[in-house]
Design goal:
The chain has about 500 residues and is α/β, with parallel strands linked by helices. It has helices at about 15-25, 45-55, 75, 85-95, 105-130, 195-210, 255-270, 320-335, 355-360, 370-385, 395-405, 425-435, 450-460; strands at about 1-5, 30-35, 40-45, 60, 65, 70, 145, 155-165, 170-175, 185-190, 225-235, 240-245, 275-280, 290-295, 300-305, 310, 340-345, 365-370, 390-395, 410-415, 440-445, 470-480, 490-495. It has 13 helices and 23 strands. Keywords: Methyltransferase, S-adenosyl-L-methionine, Transferase.
Length: about 500
């Protein structure tokens, strides 16, 4: 790999740095500025391009600053100088920042996080409504948090990266810190409290097998190499999905096929019930053409939630803490006061978990989800559980919602929104606001800052954009799905103003 480190840069944007290099006719693959630092790394495809850069920028001034430049190694890019122990502590503080805090104190910290988040939402709501609307009626000190029944080893899904350390040994775990901060190193997940013993045992098996061979680990600097990560799912029944991701690959090479057969044999010898898959991606881009090959198993696992059975595919969304997730679903049911006249609109429905759990208590469930794999799982889950009052559509919510609302104009509607972290397209919120048949919404969020615009729009005063009455935030409950982290799932009940 051909890398140079460029120091003493002026305070400028990456686009200006790129223009500077192009102006000096320097051919590069990627420029990686390090956040809040005055240096960057430049990656070249050819050694001759690196040499050319060193010559052209020697004693070069840019914006009255003398640029310092020199060749560097992969390891210096990777923050060489940190010990393995230091890197592991940095990683755990990023992945599980509350891992050294007693659990009851973690809940108090999360209560403060919720309090501050809603104060921020209130501030935006006041600005948008010229102080005519606010959340001043909410007693922030009285927001309840439901504790997780499982504190350690609770994650049912995790993605582990591969890395080759200074001793040419394979490391499987989590990235030490973000790539934008200059870290590409991976630190072992052995000490991570949120990862189960079983997942760690599977990682150990994989590491032992990979360590016997010379493998090409994917390198995010030059986007070269193949072995990128491994996804592991674990059900409460102790069944597992293990899916490897190989970049720049359309099939196994001879060595990789031997490795995969060896891993498969090790799982069998260890009496592990594993579905083993490999995803091949033609290039390094996350959206590049891919195919998934099943090595052994059915390709899915089944999870038991509140006595119901759910089929889960490798990439389908499911709450990552199954036991705490059950408490979340019970809280949604309690807030929604579902009855036989209710039609539940389960938007961003994933594998259909929420809707199927509520199906026995309501008239009908209509679910919408963009992930086709998850929709297939949702339909299959209805069959498995003998549920016949659920309909599922694979589409963007803002596209499918119009016809669904027209077809259910005479029904009592309960909308359940459980979107990704970034929230929903605000056009959908506009649709919900302007439909007078929707009077009750339950919004589930794992990141209130991402949902803030949605929440403010639900409560904003009548305007040209929002022609119907606003919603009032009636109830807030936190559910701790993520012990040892500063994240918390928030369930909110909104009702239309009278």
């Amino acid at each position: 790999m051909n890398i140079v480190k460029v120091e003493n840069l002026p305070n400028t944007k990456i686009s200006e740095i790129q223009r500077f290099f192009k102006k000096n006719q320097i051919k590069f693959v990627k420029i990686k500025p390090i956040q809040d630092k005055n240096f960057c790394y430049v990656i070249f495809r050819e050694k001759s391009d690196e040499t050319d850069c060193l010559e052209k920028l020697k004693n070069k001034f840019w914006k009255n600053k003398l640029i310092k430049i020199g060749a560097c190694t992969y390891d210096s890019y990777a923050q060489e100088g940190n010990s393995v122990e230091n890197l592991n502590e940095i990683m755990m503080n990023n992945v599980t920042p509350l891992h050294n805090v007693e659990y009851k104190n973690q809940l108090e910290i999360k209560k403060d996080i919720l309090k501050n988040a809603f104060k921020d939402i209130d501030k935006d709501l006041r600005i948008k409504s010229n102080n005519l609307n606010s959340l001043e009626y909410i007693d922030y000190s009285n927001i309840s948090i439901i504790a997780s029944p499982v504190i350690n080893g609770y994650r049912n899904k995790a993605i582990f990266s591969f890395y080759i350390d200074d001793n040419d040994e394979i490391v499987i775990g989590f990235r030490v810190s973000s790539f934008k901060n200059g870290y590409i190193q991976v630190s072992s997940a052995d000490k991570c409290k949120h990862i189960s013993y079983n997942m760690k045992f599977i990682i150990k098996i994989i590491k032992e097998n990979l360590g016997k061979h010379c493998i090409s680990v994917f390198n995010p600097i030059g986007n070269s190499g193949r072995w990128n990560n491994v996804l592991i799912r674990e059900s409460v029944c102790k069944k597992f999905i293990v899916q490897f991701n190989l970049k720049n690959a359309v099939d196994f090479d001879k060595n990789e096929l031997i490795i995969m057969e060896s891993i498969k044999s090790s799982f069998i010898e260890s009496n592990l019930d594993v579905t083993l898959l490999v995803e091949f991606q033609e290039s390094w881009c996350s959206d590049s053409k891919s195919r998934t090959l099943t090595i052994c198993g059915s390709g899915v696992i089944h999870e038991i939630i509140l006595g119901l059975t759910f089929r889960v595919s490798p990439t389908s969304f499911l709450q990552i803490n199954t036991q705490a997730g059950e408490l979340l679903y019970k809280e949604i049911e309690r807030m929604g006061k579902v009855n036989p006249d209710t039609v539940v609109l389960d938007l961003c429905c994933g594998t259909g978990t929420i809707g199927i759990i509520l199906s026995s208590k309501c008239k009908k469930v209509i679910g919408i989800e963009t992930n086709s794999e998850a929709i297939n799982d949702a339909k299959e889950n209805c069959i498995i559980n003998n549920v016949n009052n659920c309909e599922y559509y694979c589409d963007r919510v803002e596209n499918a919602i119009w016809s669904i609302l027209k077809e259910n104009v005479n029904n009592k509607l309960l909308v359940i929104l459980d979107p990704p972290r970034a929230g929903l397209n605000n056009k959908l919120i506009q649709v919900l606001r302007n439909n007078d048949k929707i009077n009750q919404i339950i919004y589930v969020s794992c990141k209130l800052s991402g949902a803030k615009q949605n929440l403010v729009s639900l409560m904003s005063l009548i305007s040209n954009k929002f022609k119907n009455k606003p919603f009032t935030l009636k109830e807030i409950t936190g559910v701790d799905l993520f012990p040892h982290t500063n994240q918390i799932e928030t369930v909110m009940l909104f009702e239309r103003c009278i």
